[in-house]
Write a structure and sequence with these properties.
It is built from four helices and two strands; from the N terminus they run αααββα. It is an all-alpha fold. Helix 2 packs antiparallel against helix 3.
Length: about 150
């Protein structure tokens, strides 16, 4: 798609549009996403329980608000149960890994000079200190910023 006959102006216009789109996406996720997410979750939940509510309403002769209440409580309970057990298993395995990680990394040496056989003067090729990769990603300040 050509926006202009001149290729330089066409490239500049495409870059401006790309920056505008990227800025709009950033603004959406930074400011609006927190407000819209509960509405999206509620909409998805309502679509998920629509057929069971219709079934309870027609076959069991329950009022629609009672059927919707029962299906909502059951669905939220089931989803919470699944999330709880998945996250508990995930954290159990992560803690087991972190406890075993020092034993795995105890004898691991890290190359100081990653290119070829070492630095030109032939000094140390690897470090004998244990390497802990989590220290690379740990925040420097004690206060974590979430947003």
């Amino acid at each position: 798609m050509h926006l202009h006959e001149n290729p330089s102006i066409d490239l500049l216009l495409k870059l401006i549009y790309l920056l505008l789109i990227a800025g709009g996406v950033w603004l959406f996720f930074h400011y609006i996403f927190g407000w819209v997410l509960p509405l999206v979750i509620a909409y998805l939940l309502s679509r998920l329980i629509q057929k069971p509510v219709a079934f309870l309403q027609q076959k069991c002769r329950l009022p629609r608000n009672m059927a919707a209440f029962l299906c909502t409580i059951l669905t939220v309970g089931l989803l919470s149960w699944v999330v709880y057990f998945v996250l508990s298993r995930l954290f159990t395995e992560a803690f087991a890994l972190f406890q075993a990680l020092p034993a795995y990394l105890k004898n691991w040496t890290v190359p100081i000079w990653p290119y070829g056989n070492g630095p030109p003067d032939g000094t140390c090729l690897s470090s004998t200190r244990p390497f802990y990769p989590l220290k690379l990603f740990w925040p420097r300040s004690s206060r974590l910023r979430w947003m």
